[in-house]
Q: What sequence folds into this?
């Protein structure tokens, strides 16, 4: 369990933040309150308890922040617009649970406009790369998982190496602006390599780097099995 919702019994809405969504043409994405009203208005209109989606989606919403213009490919600046995790849009304060046994690898407050805000990374394998616990899907055994856009209090009491059990509450979805200034949601991502990073890892990449990062960051829905998502 990652969040306190049953995706087989409760109504959820797959949200589209790609250029194919005409709503985004008239929405001021730099105005977080307006962006928030849009997201949660869509959920209310659909009678949904949560919004989901976004893995490998080519999004336009990152144009709201210069944070996503800083990557360079072949010495040329290129925007990052390919989303590498699944977003879960839900009310601030919603609890987040560890989906696998693991330990705290690292954590920090990535406090920039449009960034993750408070972030936790868990490690789910030992030094030999063996899983710390039996996974639901034996073919899908991510080494790391990332939880972004949390409350600042989610970082209280954490330390590197702290053990967590599957199903244990580890955090809460944060409000804006402390969550990186986004409508409240959880960014959940799994990685098989952290590339030497701590407390942070790209959640969005450029089109040129898409194949490389998708190979590092497999689709979390291989484990979550949310119906209607690829």
A:
């Amino acid at each position: 369990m990652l969040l306190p919702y049953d995706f087989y019994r409760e109504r959820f809405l797959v949200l589209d933040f790609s250029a194919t969504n005409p709503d985004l043409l008239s929405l001021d994405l730099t105005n977080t309150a307006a962006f928030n009203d849009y997201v949660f208005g869509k959920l209310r209109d659909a009678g949904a308890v949560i919004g989901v989606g976004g893995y490998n989606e080519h999004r336009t919403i990152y144009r709201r922040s210069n944070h996503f213009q800083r990557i360079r490919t072949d010495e040329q600046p290129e925007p990052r617009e390919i989303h590498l995790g699944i977003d879960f849009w839900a009310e601030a304060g919603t609890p987040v649970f560890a989906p696998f046994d693991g330990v705290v690898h690292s954590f920090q407050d990535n406090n920039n406009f449009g960034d993750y805000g408070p972030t936790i990374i868990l490690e789910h394998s030992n030094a030999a790369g063996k899983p710390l616990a039996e996974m639901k899907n034996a073919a899908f055994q991510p080494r790391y998982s990332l939880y972004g856009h949390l409350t600042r209090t989610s970082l209280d009491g954490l330390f590197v190496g702290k053990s967590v059990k599957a199903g244990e509450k580890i955090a809460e979805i944060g409000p804006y602006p402390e969550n990186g200034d986004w409508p409240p949601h959880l960014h959940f991502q799994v990685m098989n390599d952290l590339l030497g990073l701590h407390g942070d890892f790209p959640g969005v990449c450029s089109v040129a780097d898409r194949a490389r990062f998708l190979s590092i960051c497999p689709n979390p829905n291989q484990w979550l099995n949310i119906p209607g998502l690829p």
Observations:
- The chain has a mean pLDDT of 88.
- The first strand starts at residue 12 and ends at 14.
- The CA atoms of residues 13 and 45 lie 10 Å apart.
